[in-house]
Every structure is written in C-alpha cells, then in structure tokens.
Automatic annotation (TrEMBL):
Native species: Micromonospora sicca
Lineage: Bacteria, Bacillati, Actinomycetota, Actinomycetes, Micromonosporales
Protein name as it appears in the record: Transposase
Family: In the C-terminal section; belongs to the transposase 35 family.
Positions of the Probable transposase IS891/IS1136/IS1341 domain: 174-283
Coiled-coil ranges per UniProt: none
Length: 431
C-alpha cells in the first residue's frame, strides 16, 4: 500500500525564491504542453505523443532564448509537470469512453501563477535525500529544515513540495508500506452519518458534530470584512488574503485531525465497519450545503476505507437508496416517508425506535447481508420451478385476469369484478 506522509518545512528566503522559480518553470512547461496539443488538434494534426511533446517543450525549448531559463531548475521537476498533463489527458479520454467510473472529467486547463496552491514533485531520479541532520536535500534548491512529527516507515519513492494559500510549505512523501493487521475482535458496527450528530453507531453511541466551520464563522466573517475594505492590488490586501487563508487552514487542519482520531478508534475497536453511501455532491446543492461541507463525510469515509484495508478490517458501503431510516430494525416493515423533524417513531409491531440508532442498525444488517452475498452465501431463497399444475395453460383464460376490490376491470365489454378459477387451479397443492 502506498501512503503519504506530510511534514511542515521551513525554507530560507533564498530557498523560497528557488522554490518559486521551480513552481513557475513547472507551470510554464505544463501550459506549453497543453497549448501544443491544442494547436495540433485545431490544425488537424495527429495527437502528440508523450515523447515528442517532451522533446518539444523541454529539450528543444531550453535551447531557445525564450525558454533557456528552464535549465535553472531540476529536469525532473519539468518532466513530472509534463507527466501530470499526460495523466490529465488520459483521465479525460477514459472518461469520454466510459471506462472511467464516477463523474465526467473535464479536459485539462491552463495553470495560473495566481493559483493559491503551487506544487512540484521530485522522484527517485532527482536523487533527493533525507540527511542525517534531519534536513531534506533537493537538487538546485538546497537543504530544507523539516519538522519531523514521526518517522518515515520506509524510504520514500517521491516527494512533493507544496505551498498552500496560507503561505506554508509542506513536503509530502510517498512511501510503500506493508499491511499492519490488528488483532481480530468480535464487534461489528454500522454507522449512520448526520448533521446534529456526526455519527450514530449501531450500538447506540452518538458522536456529536464538532461543527468547526460554524464555530469559526465569527472570526472568518470579521476577516472577510477586513479583506473587502482593502484596495485591490495593494500590499495590505495581500496580507488580508493570507490571514483569511490561515483561518480556513486552521479549520481544515482541526477537522482532519479530529476525523483521523475518530476513524482510527472505530477501526481499532471493530472488525467490520459499514456506512451508508451518501451522495455528498447532491446534498451540497441543498439548503444544508454549508453544514454538509462542514461535516466532511467524504473524507471521513475515505479514512475508514484505507485504514480498514491497511489493518485487516472489513469495510463496505450500503446502497444510498436503502431505506435505513424508514425500515423497522426488528420486524423489517418499511413505513412511509418521514420528515426530518421526526426523531423517534413507533412501529405497529410494538417497537419504539430512535431515528438515527434504528438507521445505524439497519445499515449494519444490510452490510452484513451484502458481505455474506459477496462470499457466495445465499441471502435470499433460490428460485424454484413452479409445479406443472400451476404452470399449465388452461382453456379458461379468464382466470388470469386480476382485479382489485372496488376497481372494475373491463374484459370483452363486460364489467368483471370477481374472477372464478376453474376447479383444476383451485385444487392445486399449496407451495
């Protein structure tokens, strides 16, 4: 399994200038490659291959006076920028052909120097190195100071240097690690995700939604107001932009840290975890969009999925159209639609249900059934052939006409309300 480990880095002013130069060169190569392919398509020429494109926008471009400054940065950075363009095109083509699942992928777009996030990638060919003095050595940049919050489990295969909107720098290492299975346990859990309670477990435990964005709304509102009063293009406006970005980054970091701790605890305590496959994109278009995005359901379920795969746990998603809320977890009866204001309801079988706990129990049962079906077990009885006395066609075909009480059925100009079957059918043995 490949995992990413992110660490904060602190480049010096000279190293920041070198990184900014590398960011710009990678962006120019990406845009030159995209422009060359667009021009070839407009001219009716053949699609430029990856090798021909690399020769044109990197090797030959370095020999021209307009692009000779591309030689000031590592060649691996330029090659990886072009590799990102090729990957974007492949994703676009596979999406058009239907081979790629999920939402449609748009064609690649030009990168801007005004983008809040800039990144460059170094592979093993660049010969980057983690030194004994805990510094990260990058070609044509220097030795960067890194704040190591934990050790790398294996030598990294690549490193990506990122500058975010808040002006912070990070080093993201890709590491090939082996699975670390946890001791098996007997507990299994179904999770119902919500807004009032972030997660409700099938064992009755409710985890309150922290609502990090809502709690920081007052400070964010004040910073946004200060930003709106600054003159466009001024240095004070640039400083205000960084302040707003830092406030949002603090919210995102706090939410991510909380979700990591919660997902790790759930995976450690349960052998199987089942969640409902929510359509977050669709819910993000409703009046609850702000609360939905503040909850971060997609990132949380993603953490559960990869941690379960790494630690030898079972993880599955239940179909989003499964009526987990309306179904009684005791008798299986499916009731009519219920408003969001209904938090508890009574079933005709005599059971009283908490809305969220009942949904979590149904998610657990549905996940177990689907998981058993994947292993080849029969969840439903197998179909059997009907007895001959039931499958035979009789001369009196009128008995096949069905009517609902109170609703007349017209047949041959007559008003038929009651259908009498011949003795041959009424004497058929019961199944």
């Amino acid at each position: 399994m490949q995992l990413r480990y992110n660490y904060r880095v602190y480049p010096t002013p000279a190293q920041q200038a070198s990184l900014g130069r590398a960011f710009g060169c990678a962006r120019v190569v990406f845009n030159d490659g995209l422009r060359a392919r667009q021009q070839a398509r407009e001219a009716g020429e053949a699609y430029l291959s990856d090798g021909d494109l690399s020769k044109r926008v990197i090797t030959q471009a370095k020999r021209t006076p307009e692009r000779e400054w591309l030689g000031e940065v590592s060649a691996v950075v330029l090659q990886q920028a072009l590799a990102d363009l090729n990957t974007a095109y492949r994703n676009f083509f596979t999406s058009l052909s239907g081979k790629r699942k999920g939402r449609k992928v748009a064609p690649p777009r030009f990168r801007s120097r005004k983008d809040n996030r800039q990144a460059i990638r170094f592979t093993a060919n660049a010969r980057f190195k983690v030194l004994d003095n805990s510094r990260l050595r990058l070609p044509k940049i220097g030795d960067l100071a890194v704040r190591w919050s934990r050790r790398l489990p294996a030598p990294p295969t690549s490193v990506t240097v990122i500058r975010d909107a808040a002006g912070r720098y990070f080093a993201s290492f890709v590491v090939q690690t082996s699975d670390e299975p946890l001791p098996p346990v007997d507990a299994e859990v179904g999770i119902d995700l919500g807004l009032t309670h972030f997660a409700v477990l099938s064992n009755g435990k409710k985890i309150a939604a922290p609502k990090f964005l809502r709690r920081a709304a007052r400070k964010l509102r004040r910073l946004q107001q200060d930003l709106s009063r600054k003159q466009p293009g001024s240095n004070n406006r640039s400083k205000a932009v960084v302040k707003v970005a830092r406030a949002h980054a603090r919210v995102a970091d706090t939410r991510r840290d909380w979700q990591h701790k919660l997902s790790t605890r759930i995976i450690r305590d349960n052998q199987a975890v089942y969640v409902e496959d929510l359509c977050v994109t669709g819910l993000g278009r409703t009046r609850l969009a702000k609360s939905v995005h503040d909850a971060g359901w997609a990132s949380f379920t993603g953490m559960l999925e990869y941690k379960a795969a790494r630690h030898g746990r079972t993880f599955a998603r239940v179909d989003r159209f499964f009526p987990s809320t309306r179904m009684c977890s005791d008798c299986g009866r499916i009731n009519d639609n219920m408003a969001l204001s209904v938090r508890a309801w009574d079933c005709p079988c005599g059971s009283t249900h908490d809305r969220d706990v009942n949904a979590a129990k149904n998610v657990l049962a549905a996940g177990r059934a689907d998981n058993s079906n994947d292993r080849g077990a029969q969840v439903r009885p197998a179909p059997v052939l009907a007895p001959r006395v039931e499958a035979v066609i009789h001369s009196d075909a009128a008995c096949s006409t069905r009517s609902v009480e109170g609703i007349p059925v017209l047949q041959g100009g007559e008003n038929v309300n009651v259908v009498t079957c011949p003795p041959s059918l009424s004497a058929a043995p019961a199944r």
